[in-house]
Amino acid sequence: MPCLNLSTNVSLEGIDTSSILKEATSIVSKLIGKPEAYVMIVLKDSVPIAFGGTEEPAAYGELVSIGGLTPDVNKNLSAEISTILETKLSVPKSRFFLKFYDTKGSNFGWNGSTL
User: Residue 52: is its pLDDT beyond 90?
Assistant: First the structure.
């Protein structure tokens, strides 16, 4: 049940968000080893963000997963997601943080219960 929450100060008006969501879903699924059917991507735009004292394009993300996160997986996810943001939204890789949470199923609600 990986969930990737992405927030950026970039406006998504006129941007093909479907391609961002599809690409991110595929990458998260592949690298964590979970079926795409269980991956959720949330993309929020126009969020006020200052990074390094400027409001130039920036982004922040949090990825929560029940297992599948290791130092190597996290490194690869950071590289892949930052590439998407740089390519699709012009957010430089140096202006993106991604925080990882590996949680237990009992801490993740779904379908009216927990996992």
Answer: yes
Which of 2, 48, 57, 92 is catalytic? The answer is 2
pLDDT digits (tens, 9 = 90+) for 84-100: 999 999 999 999 999 99
Calpha distance 98→63 (Å, rounded):
7
Terminal-residue alpha carbon distance, the chain: 9
Residues 40, 37: Cα–Cα separation, whole Å: 8
Give me the sheet containing 3-8, strands edge to edge: 40-44, 3-8, 59-65, 96-102
> Do β-strands 109-110 and 113-114 pair in parallel, antiparallel, or remain unpaired?
antiparallel
Helix (H, G, I), strand (E, B) or coil at 110: strand
In whole angstroms, give the CA distance from residue 93 to residue 96.
6
Neighbour tally for 96: CB within 10 Å? 22
Give catalytic status of residue 71 as yes or no.
Answer: no
Q: What is the pTM of this model?
A: 0.94
